[in-house]
Write a structure and sequence with these properties.
Layout (H helix, E strand, L loop, with lengths): L2 H12 L5 E6 L2 E8 L2 E4 L11 E5 L4 E4 L15 E2 L4 E7 L2 E6 L4 E6 L5 E3 L4 E6 L6
């Protein structure tokens, strides 16, 4: 990524209420953090290392459900191993049920939102730990 592009992204970030912007591509990883009115470059972790845990956030407003409304058991209990793309919860918007999926392989460490909670876009719902880590 060219320095001019990083400077442009910094200017755009200054004009928002976004605190952290992270971009990753083949061979590149950029993290910019807004600190008051100033944007600063955040050193990234060693290339290739995945974070120890990943928080799955709501992609929409809705009511968060741990399982299907017609079943008593959760889709995935805490401590279970999940695969990338596996449904770990549901967002109910009226009669519509949207799947909440795991973005990567991991262990479902915790449900961060209680079942039946009204959530907004970006609300943390589920925490996944990297497969190599033990809870």
């Amino acid at each position: 990524m060219r320095i001019e592009e990083v400077q442009q992204l910094s200017r755009w970030l200054e004009a928002t209420d976004i605190d952290l912007l992270e971009l990753q591509g083949p061979g590149e990883h950029l993290r910019l953090r807004r600190n008051g009115t100033r944007v600063e470059l955040v050193p990234s972790d060693t290339a290739g290392n995945e974070p120890e845990s990943k928080v799955v956030a709501a992609a929409s407003v809705g009511v968060f459900l741990h399982g299907h409304p017609l079943r008593a058991e959760p889709l995935v209990p805490p401590g279970a191993v999940v695969g990338a793309g596996q449904v770990v919860g549901l967002l109910r918007i009226g009669a519509l049920l949207l799947p909440v999926t795991a973005p990567q392989d991991g262990i479902l460490a915790a449900m961060l939102a209680e079942p039946g909670t009204i959530v907004g876009y970006g609300t943390p719902l589920v925490e996944l730990q990297s497969p190599g880590r033990q809870a």
